[in-house]
Amino acid sequence: MKGIAVLGSSGSIGQSTLEVIRSFPRHFKVIALSANSNVTVLYRQIKEFHPLFACVNDLKAADELKGLVRPGSTKILVGKEGLEHLLTDRTIDEVVLAISGSSALLPLLKAIDSGKNIALANKEALVMAGSIIMKKAKKKKIKIIPIDSEQSAIWQCLDGQDRSKLKTIYLTASGGPFRAKPRSKLKNISISRALRHPRWKMGRKISVDSATLMNKGLELLEAMYLFGAGPEKIKIVIHPEAIIHSMVEFIDGSLLAQLSVTDMRIPIQYALSYPQRLPTKLESIDLYKLGSLNFEKPDFKNFTCLKLAYRVAYTLGTTPAVFNASNEVAVEEFLKGKLAFLSIPVVIRKVLDRHSNILSPNIEDILEADAWSRREAYQIIEGLA
């Protein structure tokens, strides 16, 4: 039985992870849960799974949770120190990292230092510090298994293959809600329209990233680190049906693809059970009803975040951290109604243009670049208002 820590258990990926664990009580045991501040959801999870530890981000939420939880059962921890403490517990075999955004970076590094295998649902940490993370994981001999459907597909297609024979990674994208829209129709996009993804039900930030195709830009950078491939070997292809989750091509012309229904529980389950495959009650693809599968080139003119992502992929250093942080600020301001949809890539580009790159950064350099780019992004947004 694997001991599992779910960091970000109140979010959509965290809750889907617990659905998988609920289905296999003889295979997985929840050792620890963490949430930002959603005490209601976290308390419900504690009552069901009885973890040894539960961590929340602030003291007020922790006090509220302590008032609900029976003394002597689950230990309630607080903030960064609480996460670091629970990650050292020896009964944890695997950490599901479903914390959103750049705040996942330090917990990920701590989990690796503690010798835990990682089921990774967060893109931003690898985007910011992929080289450092992958070197540390290799040194510690721990596995980083991706949960995102696209990265999981690539990982499954490459498993057991000679990676030196890899020719091309095809990273698929549904195209988001505005795939077929001309640029003139993107000027006054409302928040509710940007959040309406045609295939996946996701959190607010990732939904906006999918609408701008920034999500695919982040995945480009993530895939480079996960699979040791340069940007020239990674092509993004629009696949509206979202049935093929990604593909790899080898030097002999063979193309391998992973297909499944659009349900995050499938890659989550495999990340937890690897190298085993466990049965599922989820729907299978009916090939007789599938019909056609379509593929298109991405529109780099309408979705300039993708163009910026390739610029960053060829530059690296601290630019990925700047790219990610400026996007986080721009999306946050868009969701507050303070920034237009088409201004999101404008802000990112302006911050990148102002940045002085550090080619071989350490963690302190990356965190400083992250903080600097946030300040710059807010200044630029003020100027656009």
Topology:
Layout: E1 2-7, H1 12-23, E2 28-35, H2 39-49, E3 53-56, H3 59-68, E4 75-78, H4 79-87, E5 94-97, H5 105-113, E6 117-120, H6 124-140, E7 144-146, H7 149-158, E8 166-173, H8 191-194, H9 204-212, H10 214-227, E9 234-238, E10 244-250, E11 255-259, H11 265-273, H12 287-290, H13 304-315, H14 319-335, H15 343-354, H16 363-384
Parallel strand pairs: 1-2, 1-5, 2-3, 3-4, 5-6, 6-7, 8-9
Antiparallel strand pairs: 8-10, 10-11
Helix pairs in contact: 5-6, 6-10, 6-14, 9-14, 10-13, 14-15, 14-16, 15-16
The domain count comes to: 3
- SSE sequence, one letter per element: EHEHEHEHEHEHEHEHHHEEEHHHHHH
Average pLDDT: 94
> How far is the N terminus from the C terminus?
55 Å
Percent helix, as a range, is 40-55%
How can the largest sheet be summarized?
7 strands, parallel
Instruction: Quote the beta fraction.
Output: 15-25%
What is the number of beta strands?
A: 11
Shape: globular
pLDDT < 50 runs, ≥5 residues: none
For the largest beta sheet, what order do the strands appear in spatially? 4-3-2-1-5-6-7
From the helix content, strand content and strand pairing, which structural class follows? alpha/beta
Brief characterization of the structure:
With 385 residues, the protein is α/β, with parallel strands linked by helices.
